Amino acid sequence: MPVKRNYMKKRGLLAAASMISAAQAANPGGYEVVGDSLVSAQMAFLGRDGNVWIVDKTENNPAQINGHPAWAAVYNPKDNTAEPKDVVTNSFCAGGAVLGDGRWLNVGGNQAVTHGGAAVNDYPDKPNPYQNEDGGEAIRLLDLAGSKEWSDNDQFMTGRRWYPTVETLGGGDAIIMGGDQWGGYINGESQNNPTYEFYPPRDGDPVDFDFLGERTMPINLYPLAYLLPSGRLFVQAMYAAIVWDIDQKYEAKTLPDIPHAARAYPASGATAVLPLTPENDYNPSFMFCGGQDIPQNGWGDAGGPGFDITKKWADKSCVKIQPEGSDNPEWEEDDELPEPRTMGNFIYLPNGKLVLLNGGAKGSAGYGNDTWAVGQSYADDPTYMPLIFDPSAPKGERISRDGLDGSDIARLYHSVATLLEDGSVWVSGSNPNVDVIQTPDRQWNTDYRVERWYPTWYNEPRPQPQGLPDTLSYGGDSFDIHLSASDLKGDSDKLKNVKAAVIRPGFSTHAMNFGQRYLELRTSFTATSAEEGVLHVSQMPNNANIFQPGPALIFITVDGIPSYGHWVTVGSGEIGVQPTHDNSQLPESSVFEKSNSNAQDSSSAWSSTKSVYGGLLIGALGCVASLVDFF
Ligand SMILES: [Cu+2]
Description:
Bound molecules: copper (II) ion
Distance between the termini: 61 Å
CATH architecture of the largest domain: 7 Propeller
CATH topology of the largest domain: Methylamine Dehydrogenase, Chain H
Strand order of the largest sheet: 1-8-7-4-3-37-38
Largest sheet: 7 strands, antiparallel
Strand content: 25-35%
Number of helices: 4
Helix content: under 10%
Number of strands: 44
CATH class of the largest domain: Mainly Beta
Radius of gyration: 24 Å
Shape: globular
CATH superfamily of the largest domain: Galactose oxidase/kelch, beta-propeller
């Protein structure tokens, strides 16, 4: 039996104090060290059980399981305990995502290794102290509704993939793309795997994908790939960007080159699908911030960059593009970061803003035994300060640090972050080393500390909406949520400022969260009294390519303060064509008539429509005049 380790117990009195105030942050806007990840958090995701599931590469972590060092763990954010989990194959720089049936997929990796990351196969007697198997073709699955144990070493991909990208598709299956065979700092022709395949597998796997050939060498590992509403994929690597038709297997659109810098691994810009909202008609834009600007032929080879990259400032530009909805999409400059950043990680907050954290101001992802490396790190100058990016703010005012505090823990290569149910962000990892190193005062060690970063509003009283559903369909009947007088602070006019958002926190690794999306549902409302009311909420838009099926969290935000997240299953809960229905029709919004207790009277002069928010509603007669009440 694995032994649970309770970090708080080790911290004595200080721990006792922080457990009493478990629901309150000591430092809203800042970080708190809360626990121990047991294995280095190279990959992590929030499961539907509320736990953070961690996967590392095979290495000499002190935590043991089944007679060998562990390289997976599960962390409970409610009591800050963790226990090791068993993964059989070497999951080094794997990819991952959640499938439409709720299972977590983790694919690819490296051959079996021994001390110091050396390949077991390089030794005649094949010592295997870590008891790991080759993970190059591995398909690992975790079923949180089943065994809650990784199944591994029993299903395999068509070929070796180290640094593969995984994106869930509209049918809840996943595309697995790219990677190389034997790893290293960057890709190379001799070991490239410029193909994609699917899980569950499809006839015809693997499919050739020339985009990942010479055109995007060498910065095309972990290609940045996102599903579009059409079912096509937006793919970005090196400087190139395209729209790829998966079914017809052709380049449907050649987009302009991304300006300023390379963004894919190991340049590792921060990336995000911007919020999908009624205002943008759920047409996604993709944002890239930071990265590293080195010419295509200047990146060295699989052994490293060949120069001291730890002295080279990262990029600080933010650019975005909306690939569909126009004939000739262009890159658009967004607000510049306050400092250069590589390996920054964007995490959605429930109120539609993003926090950017982790990373460094110089260098890139990767590590090696180069004389110039900082320890073994190819990055330096950790960026300790988070920032908030508000996509809905006017240009020039989108980035803010009001009320924020930094961490004092470096989160460089192999660090992660994920949203938690309470709206805080779980941060861990950083291990720019070939194997575990924890030498005092050395830069930069393997770091097992878990932090939580708390949004500035973390300690505010939270709305407690009643009637949240457990499933969301693609189209179909709207549903009602009750908001009490305390949720609305005694003023039902606050219903005008309520948002319902669905967030998939995604699979975090290498400064990306595969599958992370934010979708704001259409809403209208009925004030049932001066103090309380009902929020009418539509189902998901009736296109599963906009927000893929599978588990997600729904949050209700009142005046910028979100509820705790409630788990929903988006879609059927199964892999396959998702049932769709007509988009939800919402009742007209109605405010409470203050001089007349009959709030249901929609013909009242106070009644209005939320068509500006709701989009679907055709304004009824009389609504035009009453909109004046709103704005
Ligand atoms: Cu890696």
